[in-house]
Structure prediction request, 707 residues.
Amino acid sequence: MAHGAGGKASRRLVEGLFAPLLFAESSEPLGDAARVNINGTSVAITTDSFVVKPLKFPGGSIGELAVNGTMNDLAVSGARGEAMVVTFILEEGLPLPVLEAEIRAMAAALQRAGIALIGGDTKVVERGKADGMYITTTGIGRPLQHVTIDARSVRAGDKILLSGPIGDHGITILLARGELDLEADLASDTRCILPLIEVLAGEAGPGIRWMRDPTRGGVATTLNELARDCRLGIVLSEEEIPMRNEVRGACELLGLDPLHIANEGQFLAVVAPEYADAALNALHRTEGGEDAVIIGEVQTEPACAVLVTTRYGGSRIADMLVGDPLPRIC
Amino acid sequence: MRYVDEFRDPELITKAADEIHRLADTGRHYRIMEVCGGHTHAIYRFGLKDVLPSNIELIHGPGCPVCVLPMGRIDDGLAVAKNAEVIFAAFGDMMRVPGTHGSPFEHKARGTDVRIVYSPADALQIARKNPDKHVMFFAIGFETTAPSTALTLMRARSEGIRNFSVFCNHVTIVPAIRAILDSPDMRLDAFIGPGHVSTVIGCRPYEWIARNEGKPVVTSGFEPLDLLQSIVMLLRQLRAGEAKVENQYKRVVPWEGNRAALKAMAEVFQLRPYFEWRGLGFISQSALKIRDEYAGWDAEQRFPIPGTRVTDPKAAQCGEVLKGVLKPAQCKLFGNECTPEHPIGALMVSSEGSCAAYYNYEHRKAAAMVTSISSVA
Prediction:
């Protein structure tokens, strides 16, 4: 299970097994989407699968995640999603009303995102497999103007921008599973972040070095990947990292690190310092971007690591997630 | 957030840190042990070492119930779990702890029914819902978690739930502290006393440390301000040449402990004559066993237990790190053969383990300091 959690084991699986055998020769770091050149036109392409349990949860459902997740991967790679295809793996016995609800949710999400679904495939597997349903979406997109995403362009002094509060999605799912006797007024933050990315690109495009959405593994895992790819250090200011009280409370109770919790509607951007203010102001003026904040900056040390500092002078390393976040004993 | 924010107030923390700098005698090197693994974790997570003067050394004690569990007991528990009708239930922290043939999670991947529970009551509920299966709760923890295991056993008996048992690995904190003080390698000045264990046993059980050994003890909360305030209180005692037990964690820890919890424990458990602790060897009267009246719910009576004894790999220095003789980074395997992803010992897996805390929060900081110093020089 650890290999799917988004942390160290996942990275090892991809880099150690998949990449050498499957991927074409490339010196570029692995990103959220890939570029392919077709007859002189650069096209972005990405794919993602969704296996969330339960299928429906406060704030969304698997269908919405499937649309937003792929749109967001394209967006943070600097591309506007143009078309999507989908595969459904359905479990035998899945009630039709449940399936219909998901299809409707997807249709609504596609419309909100402004992307067309142009094809797909459906398979049915035996009862006991597929947890109800699994969805995979593949999206292609057109690169945004003025945006080049490359971890190698990141420099010391660059600012780390976070679009909004962390942990909503992961904690919502954890509570929705019903294994914990815990309730909170929380909902998944799933949304299409393309509008915010387009605003950012318009105001600060040349200053954007790198972007990613911190899904499984959370902000810590995503920034650790960046730190390793650019071989620099990332220093965050703990007090600047926004999160709702409910997320903080749940994490404190369970002994979870909010920086390891999945998000489905946020993004991280590394912005050159001279563009940081413009970027932040532009987001604050945009619906959905009001909570954007600078949470830290790139420094030369500690190289390839992420350091979180407090106002009283304490600091700790925030490492990549190992396995799934496990609540503590006592 | 109440009871959290006030104790993380940066101004108050800075004030407490300043007071510590003022109180610490520059000519003296202080060796203070925090017994509890939760405190070790908090110290690293809040970066408290960064605000302490360099002549205060915090030494990590053996208060991590997962870390002190010998590998053989995990093997024994998993041997029972191999039975097709058994569901192995344990706290999340147990899931990655290595047994000889893999951790509980690894056993799960190979088909054993392994489930994470958040309390023993959850395990009992699984038993209620699965009448044709047997749920074995792998119980660990100091006196902090023993009462809830006791209450769950009482409930299982009163409800007549027969498809449930507990594999009991509860241990008690005082013998561990005694073993530390008896150890010739250790020279300690004072103790930061356990926080949550003390909510059950109170502060009285530590009085012999002050009276007989002459070491001050302050039971502490887990927030940064709690720990710093406890260190202030210890330094004040040391300066005055005093040695007594004080309670910093007054908002949670009652001096006399929790009578109801102690009563439940006494009803269900008795002390084992001796028990093996990883790194500390056999300690008498240091662990709990389920009483005969509850034998029907004692996994060690219901199932044949192999009684596996596993010696730690020679190179692993878990014992010395547990006793505080070695710092995690001084173990030869630290960071190489032994990391959180492929741990040799439980100290690298458990969130209360000093090796895990150091690895996750600190050790690359240290490497970075070394790099930056050497690049300046």
Residues 96-113 of chain A form the longest helix (18 residues).
